[in-house]
Write a structure and sequence with these properties.
By secondary structure, this protein is mainly alpha-helical. It is built from 12 helices and no strands.
């Protein structure tokens, strides 16, 4: 069932359909959140708040087929709210993230499999424009195909490719050479988060 069909059902009272949307897009929301907010402990709260707002405002979504880019906008706004309230925390996280990992393994290819390098890459990407960071994070860190990433961001594939090209040109050739061999990470289980969000929206009319 596509997004528009799910949303139509939700608006007609079948709220369980929203859990499908959460499962479908929680990874995307997490990725957009991580692009803006480096304080990882806050990501789940921001994403949950974003889905709850999406649920309460679902009736105002003019084009249900564009739920994903609409959700991304909500996540970005929630991130901006968080940053305004936690400027010092984020500044400290940014400072720490600029330090390379202290524990290395034998080869860059091995290191790519470790969370330390993902954080290290994010710290380098943090110096790029936010639109470029979002595109690179989705395509290179989360393994999302370019057509899907363009849809999620609400831009054309041509515009996405330009952002990726610009981002690659700003990173070192060594980093990009390794990124080309990353096939993407498995999607995280989202059942726990979906359950928490559904519990929150159960008594809310969208």
């Amino acid at each position: 069932m596509n997004d528009a069909e799910l949303i139509q059902g939700i608006l007609q009272g079948r709220s369980e359909g929203f859990e499908t949307l959460i499962t479908r897009y929680s990874g995307l929301a997490q990725s957009v959140c991580a692009t803006h907010v480096r304080h990882q402990a806050s990501h789940d709260d921001i994403v949950q708040d974003s889905f709850i707002q999406a649920y309460t405002k679902l009736g105002k979504l003019r084009n249900p087929d564009r739920f994903a880019p609409w959700l991304c906008t909500i996540v970005r706004n929630k991130c901006r709210d968080w940053l305004r309230k936690h400027q010092m925390t984020e500044a400290m996280a940014q400072t720490l993230s600029e330090e390379p990992p202290t524990r290395l393994v034998s080869t860059p290819a091995d290191l790519l499999m470790r969370e330390e390098l993902r954080d290290w890459l994010r710290s380098h990407m943090a110096r790029l424009p936010i639109s470029t960071r979002e595109a690179m994070s989705l395509c290179y860190l989360d393994g999302i195909e370019q057509p899907d990433a363009a849809t999620f961001l609400g831009i054309s594939q041509s515009a996405l490719k330009k952002r990726l090209q610009y981002g690659r040109s700003q990173l070192s050739q060594r980093i990009w050479g390794e990124l080309e061999h990353v096939e993407g990470t498995p999607k995280k289980e989202s059942a726990t988060m979906a359950g928490a969000i559904m519990l929150s929206v159960r008594n809310i009319d969208p």
